[in-house]
Amino acid sequence: MTKHVFTMGLWLAFSAHLLGSVVNNTANANQVSEFSESYSDTVKVSGQFLKGLQFTDVNFEITPHIYFPRAYLGSVCVFVSSADGRYKSQYQYTFTEHVEGVVPIEFPTKYTSELNDFSAGELGLLTSAQPDCAQLNGNYLISAWGKPNSLNAISIFVRSNARRDIATPLLKSDKQPGAAVKCQDLRSNYRVSYDKECLITDVMAEELRRVIIKRRNLRAIPDELIEFY
Known about the structure:
With 229 residues, this protein is mainly β. The chain is built from two helices and 13 strands. The termini are far apart.
């Protein structure tokens, strides 16, 4: 009897160790690489037009969540820009197993308390499914600061330079394009890194194929094309 209890104890201990190893390996399988960030009193502005593609109906928290409309395996490029131009970061996040739906990812910032002073609309979050982050080439994903409550209200944050921009969503199905919307001034006192918000509503994220943004001013400017994964 004593030998049987001892053997059973060893088996349970080994099983617990094995399960712990599996859990730890799964947790450590996905990884952050090439993370860089800066937070400064000196305002920094880049010429990049697109600054964020984000769900608006969220409970704000400093944890990026990315929506994958279909299964994905590989690397994602992540860019963060504060509207006031003081904070920016970028990194690559690699999924070693297929993911789908809304997925939280690690964000190893050391400025959590500072970033919590922003609202979700003042912290541009831009993600793209591609292996090389040096040059974005589409395959954009829609993200959120915290888990989104719904997937049919999407903000596009852009650096418009006071132009009159019009955004039109195009769908994956053969349906008519979604309603064109006029991009509005950002609802913030800070409009340095980006200054306009194009709000797409009543369109499910999984249906989005691309968004065309027509840039209007005193002279013709090429359209901006946002292609989704």
